[in-house]
Design goal:
With 349 residues, the protein is α+β, with helices and mostly antiparallel strands. It folds into 3 domains: 129 residues, 2-Layer Sandwich (Nucleotidyltransferase, domain 5); 99 residues, ATPase, nucleotide binding domain (Nucleotidyltransferase, domain 5, 2-Layer Sandwich), CATH 3.30.420.40; 70 residues, Actin, Chain A, domain 4, CATH 3.90.640.10. Helices cover 40% and strands 26% of the residues. It is built from 14 helices and 18 strands. Strands 3-2-1-8-9-18 form a 6-stranded mixed β-sheet, with helices on both faces. Helix 4 crosses helix 5, helix 6 crosses helix 13 and helix 7 packs across helix 8. The protein binds adenosine-5'-diphosphate and magnesium ion (MG). Magnesium ion (MG) binds next to loops.
Length: 349
Amino acid sequence: MLHRLLAVLGSDLAIDLGTANTLVSVVGAGLVLNEPSIVAVEEGTNRVLSGGCAVGHLAKQMQGRTPQSISVVRPMTGGVIADFELCEAMLRYFIRKAGAAGFRVKPRVLVAVPGCITPVEKRAVYNSTQRAGARQVLVMSEAKAAAIGAGLNVTEPVASMICDIGGGTTEVAVLSLGDIVAQQSVRVAGDAMDRAIVDYLRRHYNLRIGSSAAERLRIEIGSAYPLEDELSDEVRGVDMISGLPRKATITSEEVREALGTPLLEIVEAVKATLDQCGTDLASDLVDNGLVLAGGGSLLRSLDRFLAEQTGLPTRVCADPLTAVARGTHICLEHFDRWRGAMQSSDEDV
Ligand code: ADP
Ligand code: MG
């Protein structure tokens, strides 16, 4: 009875708490917030600037251009909470912003979490979300949310396969009859690709560049497979010998070479997931193929590269950056149908 009353009065919220971006949707209203998972704090403290509001877009504007007294940090690393207090501050801000219309009671909140999460890390998600203003916290696997959001028929008795490449982790899963039958979660995604680019420029150009410059190169000219018309781009950094700032022109071939190792690690994760499947499920995938989600899947020709490496037909889902958010939203909207896909802080002890 009390539960039903709360459900009527309160709003339910789904959060895709990503390493790179946080997306919040509200049942009945859809996606209401999509911001970078970053906060700006007073250097050496956990005090979020602007009275707790230097979060997301606002903090992003400060990134790389802050005086020494300010640092811009990402509370999430490799798909999990790296800084407990800051994650809570970020969630509090996002939950409040999403509820601008005014929650009459604290919301029930569903959070998507990586498959590789440890019990301690999951507990941190429960606690941070609860302290940030949730009445009840539920979690579900990001891979399952991405598959549902991508529109895969996960409840059918046939296999479907999803690979969600985000900023911190790549989640690969094969689903059938509503459940995950095989999965791999590796801490290789957009951030690891950027580290590989930083490393490449250091080794081949004696040039030190920041991670946001590396990300820009990857988005502007990065690819997984040779391009018909190869591209090039200018990058600015600091010469490692003279210590002076300078520019260099980098080609898409070079970026592709830099991305070689992280891309092969993603291929290995897909193959390892296939290895866990029985023959029947694996053979379903010959037709159903591999579906890519997450911002990392927007790398040029990644679908073609994965198709060639795995032998499976591969495609990127529509709007890959919001697939997990759409999936969690569907689960909350059809709560009774998807209850089994979620775990609650109350029962998970
Ligand atoms: P997370 O779930 O970890 O927050 P997202 O699914 O939001 O990650 O994806 C973020 C990643 O997507 C970042 O590494 C970003 O660089 C990458 N990304 C976003 N847009 C593009 C693009 N157009 N091309 C390549 N990568 C992109
Ligand atoms: Mg994600």
